[in-house]
């Protein structure tokens, strides 16, 4: 496999017991190895030779994404938990890797690379906590965030139309308003 413009996800981690977590490394346009995130005893860290041999191995935990392919980058953003995608993209920005960071927003389902994706947890959906996080574009993220408490809500159908407050802040606000009126009269 050509070791250029290549992002690799592998099972690293493995502290106590056999718990693993996703680790990432990449080869840039010149074929230079970069460790993005390594952890535990299965992490590859700065060992470029090991990374090269891992890419050429038949390990079945590996996932490859071509960074110069829009399709591959979008695929990466869909396959991995949103928080991991956000961390990898953030690392790329901080390290001046000049790739278009494509992702699909889970809310408006638009493909985008214009804004940085924001990961969010679907913890407010009927009390069910999802293990995975999703990605949203900046526009959706701000329109789904309560202007008062700053909480992100997946469902905005109960947002105050004028206030931009979530259901709960809207209720508090209205109660305070009516209490205020009660004092005046
Ligand atoms: Zn969106
Ligand atoms: Zn609120």
Q: Structural class per helix/strand content? A: alpha+beta
Counted up, domains total: 2
Number of strands: 8
Largest sheet, strands/sense/barrel: 4 strands, antiparallel
Assign a percent range to the helix content. 25-40%
| Dominant shape | elongated
The hetero compounds bound to this protein are: zinc ion
H-E order: EEEHEHHEEEEHH
Which strand order does the major sheet show? 3-2-1-4
Radius of gyration, Cα only, in angstroms? Answer: 21 Å
> Approximately what portion of the residues adopt beta-strand conformation?
15-25%
The residue-averaged pLDDT reads: 88
Q: Unreliable segments (pLDDT under 50, ≥5 consecutive)? A: 123-131
Determine the N-to-C terminus distance. Answer: 78 Å
- List the total number of helices: 5
Short description:
With 185 residues, this protein is an alpha+beta fold. The chain is built from 5 helices and 8 strands, in the order βββαβααββββαα.
Structure write-up:
It is a single chain. The protein folds into two domains: 6-114, no CATH class; 144-184, no CATH class. The protein is an alpha+beta fold. The longest helix has 18 residues, at 167-184. 26% of the residues are buried. The protein has helices at 48-55, 70-79, 82-94, 138-143, 167-184, and strands at 6-13, 20-27, 33-37, 63-66, 103-104, 111-112, 118-121, 133-136. Residues 146, 148-149, 151, 165-166, 168-169 line the site of one zinc ion.
